[in-house]
Specification:
300 residues, 8-stranded antiparallel β-sheet, 3-stranded parallel β-sheet, 11 helices, 11 strands, binds adenosine-5'-diphosphate, binds magnesium ion
C-alpha cells in the first residue's frame, strides 16, 4: 500500500501498523454534504451538523469542544486559503471514534506555503507548517490551526497534490510520503476516540511559557525532519530549522533518531542564533552521545 518514492517517518513504528485499517465499529451517524464556497461561514456548517446528527447527546463535552475547534479551524482554512469553488464535508460518528474530513479542490496546502515562502519542496513546507505560526496571510491569521489540530487528534492527515502528511499521536509517529493518485486541492482527515481524555485547554497550556498570558509562544521541532538524505547536518539546515522561530520565547529541539549533527549546525543554533536572540530559550532533548558532544562544545 505504501507507494514508491519518498517516505519519511519519525520514530521506530513499522509503517505497516499504520496502514492497517483500524476497527471502527458500527456507524452511528454520518453527515455528508457539499457546499459552494461562496459566503460560507464555519459556524453555519457547524449548526447544520449539530442540528442534524444528535450531536450533543452522543459526545462528551471535551470531545465536543475539540471537534468544534478543530473542525472550524480546518473548514476556515478551506474557505479562506484554498480558493476552491466547492468544499465537501464529512463527519462520522461510529461506536469508538469521531471522524471528519474536509475536502477542497483548490490550490493545495503544501504548494500554497511553498509558493509563498519560495521553498524548494513539499517537505520544506511541512517543516515550516509543523513549527506553528506559519501562515500565508499574516494580517488576518496566526498560523495556529494546523499546529493544534494535528496535536489534539488521535490521527490527523493532510493530503495534497501527490503528498500526504500523517500524524499518529497514539503511537507518537509521523509520516510524510508521496502518494498516488494525486489529490487535487487539499483533503484534511481528523480522527479522535470518543472516550478521549484530551482537553483543548491542556494542549494550549503546553505551548505557553506563562499560563496567565494565554499566548502561544512555545514550540517543539523534530530535527529528524531536517536530516533526510544526509549524515552530517549543516549550517544551511540549521538556518532552515531556525526560520520563523524568532516568534517564539521557548523552543524545544527534539534530536530523537538523529545520529549526528555537524559542528556548523550546532554553532549556528547554539551560538549565532542565541547571540542574536538572547531572550529565546532553546532546549535540546533526546540527544545521543555524539549530538550531545557537538552541542556541548559550541563556543568552547
Ligand atoms: N485548504 C487549504 N488550502 C490551501 N492552503 C492551506 C489550506 N489549509 C491551510 N493552508 C495553508 O496553511 C497555512 C497554515 O494554516 P493554519 O495553521 O490553519 O494557519 P492560518 O489559517 O492561521 O494561516 C495557511 O496560512 C495556508 O497557507
Ligand atoms: Mg487556519
Amino acid at each position: 500500500m505504501i507507494k514508491k518514492g519518498l517516505l519519511i517517518k519519525l520514530g521506530s513504528t513499522r509503517s505497516a501498523s499504520y496502514v492497517l485499517p483500524k476497527y471502527a465499529g458500527n456507524i452511528e451517524w454520518k453527515f455528508d454534504r457539499r457546499y459552494l464556497n461562496k459566503n460560507l461561514a464555519e459556524h453555519e456548517v457547524l449548526e447544520d451538523i449539530e442540528g442534524r446528527a444528535q450531536f450533543r447527546q452522543s459526545l462528551s463535552e471535551n470531545v465536543r469542544n475539540i471537534f468544534e475547534y478543530t473542525f472550524s479551524e480546518m473548514l476556515n482554512n478551506a474557505i479562506e486559503h484554498s480558493e476552491s469553488e466547492n468544499i465537501h464535508v464529512i463527519v462520522e460518528k461510529n461506536e469508538n471514534n469521531l471522524l471528519f474530513q474536509i475536502n477542497d479542490f483548490g490550490i493545495g496546502v503544501f504548494r500554497n506555503i511553498m509558493n509563498d515562502r519560495k521553498l524548494k519542496s513539499e517537505l520544506e513546507a511541512v517543516q515550516d507548517l509543523l513549527k506553528g505560526k506559519t501562515t500565508t496571510q499574516p494580517q488576518a491569521h496566526s498560523g495556529e490551526g494546523i499546529f493544534f489540530t494535528s496535536k489534539i487528534a488521535d490521527a490527523f492527515s493532510l493530503e495534497s497534490f501527490g503528498y500526504k502528511l500523517t500524524i499518529e499521536n497514539n503511537i507518537e509517529d509521523l509520516f510524510f510520503e508521496e502518494i498516488k493518485p494525486s489529490k487535487k486541492g487539499t483533503k484534511v482527515s481528523f480522527d479522535i476516540a470518543c472516550n478521549s481524555e484530551r482537553h483543548l485547554n491542556d494542549l494550549f497550556a503546553e505551548y505557553q511559557t506563562n499560563p496567565e498570558e494565554y499566548a502561544f509562544d512555545k514550540t517543539e521541532i523534530q530535527i529528524k525532519l531536517y536530516t533526510m538524505g544526509t549524515i552530517h547536518i549543516s549550517r544551511s539546515q540549521a538556518r532552515r530549522v531556525l526560520t520563523g522561530l524568532e516568534k517564539f520565547k521557548s523552543i524545544t529541539l527534539d534530536f530523537d533518531n538523529v545520529p549526528n549533527v555537524g559542528q556548523a549546525f550546532a554553532d549556528e543554533i547554539f551560538r549565532v542564533f542565541k547571540n542574536k536572540n538572547p531572550d529565546i530559550q532553546i532546549t535540546p532533548i533526546n540527544m545521543n552521545k555524539a549530538v550531545k558532544f557537538m552541542i556541548g562544545r559550541v563556543g568552547k
